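Before drawing any conclusions, I looked closely at one protein's amino acid sequence and its C-alpha cells, quoted below without any editing.
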Amino acid sequence: MRKLLWLGIAWLWAQQDPATRALLLKYDALFWWLNLQVSHTSVQLGPSWVLTRLRVTAPSLDTLAFELHSALTVDSVMVNGQRLSFLRRGHTVRIPLAPQPTQGTVLEAIVYYRGTPPTTGGTGIFNRQSPSWGNQVTWTLTQPFYAHTWWPCKQILPDKADSVWVFLTVPMGTRAGSNGVLEGIDTLSAQSVRFRWKSRYPIAYYLVAFAVAEYVDYSFYAAIPGVLQPVLVQNYIYNNPQTLPYFQDQIDTTAALLREFSQRYGPYPFWREKYGHMMAPFSGGMEHQTMTTQGFFTFTLTAHELAHQWFGDWVTCGSWQDIWLNEGFASYSEYVALQALSTAADARNWLVSTHDNVVSDSRGSVWVADTLNDARIFDSRLSYDKGAYLLHMIRFRLANDSIFWAILRSYLTAYGGEVGWAANLQQVLEQATGQSWSTFFQQWYYGEGHPIFSARWNEAGGNAWIELSQQGSWSASVPFFETPVEVRLLRQGRPDTTVRFFSAQSVQIFSLPGVGTVTDIQIDPDYWILRQVASITRDVTMGIEQEEHAFWVGPVPVRVGEQLTAQLPSPGRVQVQDMQGRVLWEGAAPQTTWVWQVAVPAGLYLLRWEGAGGRQHRQKFVVYP
C-alpha cells in the first residue's frame, strides 16, 4: 500500500484481547466463502453470510471464535450443518461446541449477519464519490486490523486460508471486483446481479477485498517469461467516458511491469488467475491479491502495487513489526522499474528524493516497535523509504546484481504462499553469501540514524591520501556504522575514478598510489548508502613525510615468511595496514628496533608508527611471494 492521505486513524481496534487470541489460535483457517449483498451507494450490508472451513489445531476446541465488529448483527450460526447458539462479546462471535471436536477435525462454520459497519474511527469499508470523476463507489481496505468491520474473520497474519470465494450481489448496472477469477455473473432479478469470484491461492485475511461501482471492464493479456499462458490484466475503470482515455496509457504499462518483475523476482505468482485493478476514490493504492484497488494511475504507484503481489501477497510479513518485507520491497521496486523502463535521470531523482527524506530525521528504526499504531506501521519515511534503502544497501554490499536478484528469488521460493520475517531474509542472505549479516541488521534494521562522514585528502606526485571520519547521527542507538563506502576521485586530464573502501573505524587513512592529479573527491556520489557528508577538505600536509620522523624498513622487498625489520625514531606502537587502510597487525614496539615475521599475502603495505605526543610516520614496503 502506498501512503494514503486519509491514513492515521486515531481509534484502533488493533490486536485481539488475550482471551480472543487464545481461541483463534486453536484452529487453522482453510477456506473462506464470502456471500455478500452490497451496493455502490452505501456501506450497508444486506443479509450476508461467510463460510469458514477450518481444522482444529488444539487438543480440543470448546469455543469457536470469529472477529466481527459489534455494529453488525448476527442472525444465526451453523457448524457442520447444525444451527448452534452463540455469544457476542466485544467484537467477537463465540460459538460453544459440544461435544468438543478434537485436534485434526475439519469443521465448516457459517455466520449469517447484516447491518451497517462503523463509518467513524477504524473501519475497513468505505463509500464515497470520486471528486474527479463523480462516480459513487463502495470499497474495502482492511489493512492492518479492519477486516472484522465487514466480515467474520480471523485476523492473524500467519494463518492464510488456502483459497477464497467472494460472491457479491450488487445492483443491476454495476460491477463488483474481487480476488481471483470471475467464474460467472448471475442475473438474480431485474434489480440485482451476482458476481462470483474464486481464487485458489493462499491468501491473508487483509488481502480479501471488493469494490462495487458503475465500472467498465478494460482487459487485455500480457505475455510474461516463465509461464505457460499470457496473464489476464483485468481493470474495472469508472464508466465516466473520460476516465479510461485519461489513464489508458498508464494502465497499459502494467504489461511491461509484469514482464520486468517476472524477470527479476520470478514469474508472476498468480498467473493462473489474473492481475488487475479496481478504482476507488482514495489517494493511493492497496495491493489486494490479484486485483489492486487504486485511486488513480501513475508509473510508480502501479509499479509499487504490482510488486506487492510478490512481496506482501505471495510472501506476506509474518508480523506488522516486519512490514518492511512488504512496503520496503514494493517501494524499492519503484526504483527497479524506473531503472529498467524509464530514464536514468528519473531513477536517480527517485533515489535522491528517497534518500533525502530518510536522512531528514535521525530517529526511528525500520523495525516497528509499536504495532498498535497503524500510522507508525505505515510511516512513509521508515517503513517505505528507509525500508527501500535497506534493500539498496544490501545490493551495494553484495556488489553483484546476479547474486542480489537470485537471493530475492530464493526468499520468494522458500516462503511463497506463506509468511516471512526479517530473520528469514537474513538467513537466506547468509546461506547465499556464507557471511554473517547480523551487524548489518542490528545497525540498519533495528538501529536508528545513519553515518555522517567527513574527509581530509591530499594528492602529491600522483599519489593520494584520504582520511575518512565517521560517526552515527543518533549515537545513542548506533554510534558507528560498519559499511562499505565509495569515494570518487575527480582527476585532471584523466577520467574520474571511484574507489570502494570499507569504513571499519571512526577514523581511517587510505593511501592510493599512482592515481594522477586529483582535483577533488566525492563521498558516495551515487547514493548507495544512507549518509550525510559533513565536510570534505584538502589538507596539503597529508602524505608529506618529515625527515626527522623518517625510519628505515627492510629488506625491501621482503618475502612472505621472512623477517621485516624497522629502525623506529623512538618506542611506540606500530600497525601493518593494507592499501585500503585495513589494520592487519597492531602491537607495541618497546624498543627502537622492531622485528616482525611477515604473514601477509604478496602486495603493497604500509607500516605505521605512532610515538609519544602523537607523532606519526608511515613507510611503504612490498611483500613478494
Summary: Residues 5-14 have pLDDT under 50 and may be disordered. The chain has four domains: 18-314, 331-446, 451-538, 547-624. Residues 243-265 form the longest helix (23 residues). The radius of gyration is 31 Å.
